[in-house]
Amino acid sequence: MPRVTYIEPDGRAQTLSVDAGSSVMRGAVDGGIDGVEAQCGGLCACATCHCYVQLAWLDKLAPPSEDELLMLGNVAAERRPNSRLSCQLIVEPALDGLTVQFPDRQS
Amino acid sequence: MGLPYSFPTVRADPEHASIVDSQAPIVIVGAGQAGVQIAESLRQEGYGGELQLLGNESHPPYQRPPLSKKWLLEPGAFGALSLRGAEALVRRRIELKLDTEVAAIDRAASRLQLTNGEQLPYRALALATGAWARALSLPGAALGQVLSLRSIADSAAISAAIRRCAAAGRPVVVIGGGFIGLEVAASARKLGAAVTVLEGLPRLMSRVTAPIVSEAFERVHRAHGVELVFGAQVTQLRGSGDVESVCTADGREYAAGCVVVGIGVVPDDRLAAAAGLACDRGILVDDCARSSDLSIVAAGDCTARRLADGRLLRLESVQNAVEQGKSAAAALLGRERPFRAAPWFWSDQYDIKLQMVGLSHGYDQVVTRGDLQKPAFSAFYFQAGRLIAVDSLSRVQDHMQSKRLLDHGLSPTPEQAADPLFELQSLLRDAKLATADGA
Fold first, then answer.
1. What is the pLDDT of residues B127-185, one digit of tens each?
2. Could you tell me which chain A residue has the CA closest to the CA of B84?
3. pLDDT tens across B343-375, in order?
4. How do residues B216-257 score in pLDDT, each as one tens digit?
5. Which long-range contacts link B188-194 to residues 24+ away (Cβ below 8 Å)?
6. A14 interface with B at CB cutoff 8 Å
7. Which residues of B touch A20 (CB under 8 A)?
8. Test mutation, A39, A40, A49, A87, chain B, max B CBs within 10 A
């Protein structure tokens, strides 16, 4: 199973194994990672699973959809060039080692 | 995995002495969205003592919104519905007790009486008992295949009934043209069943939307082959064993292979009311989720929140459960964290993403932007020239920007809202609220 490293808002890192085909958000809520809310459950409808992708991984991800880009325009925390919605990031073997950080607020 | 948390001791707060002096756990009744949020927020706020989360179903905490949407189409593994994994609860030292029904709250003794005879002492209590689907009280309502939607089991039963109807060429009759009824209707069409929606009022979702939004959804449902009947006063259901038809006051009779009842929910305030807490079709709470008893908080669908102007607000939404849950956790620790953000909701019907923010009740003007025919537009509701709510149909950007406008008390003029060239974002920029490269 691919591993994802989650950096919580206070800087602590947790590495979890996440099922391929599952989302980065799903791995976080199942593993009890702080800093993710995911109110809509992964429909790209609420922007409360906002994360910052470690820059080295940014180009390896499928680009954001138009809806995700629009949602990212209004996230609660600072939007950065590496901002993504973690519900839209699907884990696959090639992403083993992916590292994301959650901001200090989602809503 | 070890427990990386260090829990600061909760400082004694004289006003909440009853909460911090006891060694008993904080107990949360109800393991849905609100209950889970209260538990998690208590940990995040630094509560280090014991924490029990009681659920009366046999499933661990799960999300309800997909039950009327994707889950009806493809009931799958439980994992996809799960709200938090077992690991998450262990990591936060949340003791989950399933199949646990509370019979009564003994406030004088600070303990719960369970239906299995057990007693659970609490140092403080949080109620997140949710709501149940309002039932029809009509002749024939108890017939087989008359279904309503609240739990995973309900969703599975409706999904199976729709498939049986599709295979047998029998229609699905939906009573109620609100969110749940319409989401079920859309799913039933996708599964190939004939669908009739019986709505008592003259239009769809009339409690929450303007006519222009109702009309857009009427067109879409009809285009997908749904029969919509307005002003339908259901008088009885007929059948022997299973339901076979639905009769209305105008003498019509609609054949039915199954009936799905979507006529709203009833907040479950039974425990609270029996224990003498102030209730009014919901447990009365302030905007910090405090009930009329200082050591008891309540959050989510089971509450009726008193607003500053005295009105009572009953919201049934994920956001309400999450935000009231945060308030409730803070209140238990003697802190005030009022929930004042604009309420928001969503509904998926066919390929339309309906997102609503604010409360449109009392509007005196509606303007739209976007394409009404497609439909991909937003309806902006104004009261005395100020924006109070926005319904967006497949207009994600309008929704997100409106949410921020409402949360910050900003308002475009109706002319600006209706002008496709006017950037709503510019109001946020002017107020220095726009994100760095906001769309």
1. 999 999 999 999 999 999 999 999 999 999 999 999 999 999 999 999 999 999 999 99
2. A30
3. 999 999 999 999 999 999 999 999 999 999 999
4. 999 999 999 999 999 999 999 999 999 999 999 999 999 999
5. B188/B72, B188/B162, B189/B224, B189/B225, B189/B226, B190/B73, B190/B350, B191/B72, B191/B73, B191/B159, B191/B162, B191/B163, B191/B166, B192/B166, B193/B162, B193/B163, B193/B165, B193/B166, B193/B257, B194/B165, B194/B169, B194/B170, B194/B225, B194/B227
6. yes
7. none
8. A39
Q: Do B322 and A107 touch (CB under 8 A)?
A: yes
0.90 surpassed by pTM: yes
Asked whether the beta carbons of residue B322 and residue A72 sit closer than 8 angstroms, the reply is no
DSSP secondary structure, B130-178, as one string = -EEEPPP-STTTTSBTEEE-SSHHHHHHHHHHHHHHHHHTPPEEEE--S
| Chain A residues with beta carbon closer than 8 angstroms to that of B319 | 39, 46, 107
Q: CA of B94 to nearest chain A CA: how many angstroms apart?
A: 11
Interchain pair B400, A74: CB under 8 A = yes
How far from each other are the two terminal CA atoms of chain A, in whole angstroms? 31
Picking from A30, A39, A107, the nearest residue to B88 by CB comes out as: A30
